[in-house]
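#random but structural
TW: two for the price of one
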Amino acid sequence: MISDTVAVGVLTFIGTGLATAAGLWQWQRAQAREARANFRTQRVEALREVWEALSDLEETQRLSFTRRDRSAAAEASRLTQVNLLLLRRSPFLRPDEQEWAQAFAQHVTEIDTLIRAQGRDGQPDEPDSEWFATSRA
């Protein structure tokens, strides 16, 4: 039959193989956990950047009317920056979040266009400085 030393050698080999496989499996799990944590961190950073960019776009649009600045160049460049940011950060944003951000930017641009067109269509050239106020001074 099989000698004791051969049986011990085979069992040792199998045990070593199992211990190595278990260690490799744990290492892969740790690497995957670290990658998920890194992705979550970058996702939060991407959401923060998109939020700030959209807020800046909306704020710039509102301030352009209070300062009676009728050029649309600043808003166009901000919109371009927002779109480039959405493209750059798209791997970390869900599709619905990208759609919402693009829709918000588009609506801000449409509102800006409508208000500017109102001034060109014979409406008073002076904007209503209270249209955006949420509280009285």
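TW: number two ↓
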Amino acid sequence: MDAELMLLALCTGIGLGFLLLAVHAVLTAARLWARGLQVTGVVTARVPADRRRGGLVVFSDHLGRDLVLDPGSYAALCGLPPVGRTVPVVYARSRPTTARLWTLRHLLAPSFGWFLSSTVAFGTAVVVSP
């Protein structure tokens, strides 16, 4: 089998996989927007021994349990306010442990990353195509 054709098939397959992940992330965000429960959380500081940047968000679910949301290392880029401020949190009623921040950047950041990755993979496939 020709190496260029193999590389074309590999890049196309990776691009399709990334595109499916992007569509899944958009559908998840849309489901949270349509049916999610929105509560208010408080941004708290991490433990001093934790080297990761950004804060944690503490919120209560519909059953009164206190849960902690870790927005990740890019929390400041996704619009996380400083420690002590409140932030809206949204979660599916059946799965409060998979909560997300109720900001446009935090909800759509995963899908944007997957779309960008699929574009790079498809672009590579176009460049290497015979």
